[in-house]
Amino acid sequence: MSEGPEDRDDDWFESAFDDEDESDATDATDATDESGDEPDADSDAGSESPFAGDDGGSPFEDDSGSPFDDDGGSPFEDDGSSPFDDDGEPDGNDGGSLFGDDFATAFESAGSPGGGGGGSGTEFEDEDFDSDIPRIDIGIEGLDRMIQGGIPRRHLIVSIGSAGTGKTTFGLQFLHHGLENGENCVFITLEQSHDDIMDTADDRDWGFDEYEANDQLAVVDLDPVEMANSLDNIRGELPGLIEDFDADRLVLDSVSLLEMMYDNPAKRRTEVFDFTRSLKAAGVTTMLTSEASEDNPYASRHGIIEYLTDAVFVLQYVRSETRETRLAVEIQKIRNANHSRETKPYEITMDGISVYQQANIF
Question: Is the pTM of the predicted complex or chain greater than 0.70?
Answer without folding.
Answer: no
